[in-house]
UniProtKB/TrEMBL annotation:
<dbReference type="GO" id="GO:0061598">
    <property type="term" value="F:molybdopterin adenylyltransferase activity"/>
</dbReference>
<keyword id="KW-0808">Transferase</keyword>
<keyword id="KW-0548">Nucleotidyltransferase</keyword>
<dbReference type="InterPro" id="IPR001453">
    <property type="entry name" value="MoaB/Mog_dom"/>
</dbReference>
<protein>
    <submittedName>
        <fullName>Molybdopterin adenylyltransferase</fullName>
        <ecNumber>2.7.7.75</ecNumber>
    </submittedName>
</protein>
<comment type="pathway">
    <text>Cofactor biosynthesis; molybdopterin biosynthesis.</text>
</comment>
<dbReference type="InterPro" id="IPR036425">
    <property type="entry name" value="MoaB/Mog-like_dom_sf"/>
</dbReference>
<dbReference type="InterPro" id="IPR051920">
    <property type="entry name" value="MPT_Adenylyltrnsfr/MoaC-Rel"/>
</dbReference>
<keyword id="KW-0501">Molybdenum cofactor biosynthesis</keyword>
<feature type="domain" description="MoaB/Mog">
    <location>
        <begin position="80"/>
        <end position="221"/>
    </location>
</feature>
<dbReference type="Pfam" id="PF00994">
    <property type="entry name" value="MoCF_biosynth"/>
</dbReference>
<dbReference type="GO" id="GO:0006777">
    <property type="term" value="P:Mo-molybdopterin cofactor biosynthetic process"/>
</dbReference>
Amino acid sequence: MTEGFLGTSARAEHTDESGKRVDDILRVRGVEDLAPDEQASYDRLDAEVTEPGDEVFLSLDEQEDRRDARATRHSLLHALVVLVSDQIAPGDQSGELVAELLAEEDFMVDAVLTVESSQASVRQALETAVVGGADLVITVGGTGAGPRDMTPEATKKVLDKRIPGLSQALRASALACNAIDGGLSRGVAGVSGSTVVVNLASSRSAIRDGMATLCPLARYVIGELNQA
């Protein structure tokens, strides 16, 4: 008698080690009733089945998106923190807090610098960071309306392009969480060369909320700069 289209070889692919058809076993008894040797055969067959979520089913664009996502997660971006203050209060760990939050977002923090509240000092620190190749520079403090709050003025002189949306997002999120100094901050954000520069207010609430808002946005801008 002539074999059907599937033939003996096709049936053999669906038999367990004892010669019984695995699909017959499953149909009669269900997976939970299998003997140990039958379960092993079922597991082996199940592992060999390609699911729609497997990469072979993805389009070329989807595969490229996955590769880009993996590369982004594993790429190490360099950041530098500039704490702007004429006098550091005992126990003030604003700079260290920003560095810690950056590390949690997979940034390599090269340094935490402390400079006085003068345009010249802030500008010099920013220019040094840009020349050093930092991907992101965050200043902390000096964004208020006081006579010594000159961080935005110094930052503007370093920027090649302003990114108003970044600073606006920081102010909006700060007001939403009642971080008043962050909501009323005069801070600016933008790009200098291939470095993203952002001003943050100095309260802990402004820093914590600001960093949660900033990191994904900064990473997006850095990605745009790296594609240029």
